[in-house]
Hints:
Blueprint: H1 9-25, E1 39-43, E2 48-52, E3 56-61
Antiparallel strand pairs: 1-2, 2-3
Amino acid sequence: MDIKRNLSAQEEKIIFKAIDDFREYGKTDIECPICKGKLNYIGNNSSFAISCDNCGVIYSLRGI
Length: 64
């Protein structure tokens, strides 16, 4: 199940912080802003998705 709605500005801010953590440390302790589930990083530096164990994909970006 993937989230089919726009994230609020606050939720996006949390997701962007999690992306920074994943890229810098390879992991994050930040919880899903929607359900407080575990966040996962799928992909590489140019194309990736942030998914939650409960919500599915909540943010994705495709590179070149």
